[in-house]
Amino acid sequence: MKSSWFWKAADGAKRPTAALEWGLVLLSALLLWAGWPAGGWPGLLFLAFSPLLALTEYLHAGGYRKPGRRLGWRIYVALLLWNILCTGWVANA
Q: What residue spans of 14-66 are helical by DSSP H?
């Protein structure tokens, strides 16, 4: 299970840092936004969920008491940021 590229990049850290967690959330939101508009790259929509999947693996192995709740809020923020970015794109169109 720990042979994925994400674990090799994480250098064996037991718990994710706040910067890593929110960085993955922001990266996912930006990839969703970049793949959504008419002039965007739709292929990014498939890659946009990879940071959230990596965050899922990382949080469940981190030893948190309720990793599902923590993950749920991170996914909620990622989708909220994506919604705000897309709404701004539509409002300025």
A: 18-35, 44-47, 50-61
Tell me which residues of the chain have a pLDDT lower than 50: none
Element (H, E) at 45: helix 44-47
Residue 90: what residue type? V
Under DSSP, the state recorded for 41 is -
pLDDT of residue 53: 94
Q: What is the pLDDT of residue 84?
A: 95
Tokens of 27: 């990266």
- Dist CA 28 CA 77 (whole Å): 10
Q: How far apart are CA 43 and CA 18, in angstroms?
A: 28
Token pair 């008419």 in the structure block, residue:
38
Using alpha carbons, list the distances in angstroms from residue 16 to 11, 33, 36, 50, 66.
11, 25, 29, 16, 14
For residue 4, give the 3-state DSSP assignment: coil
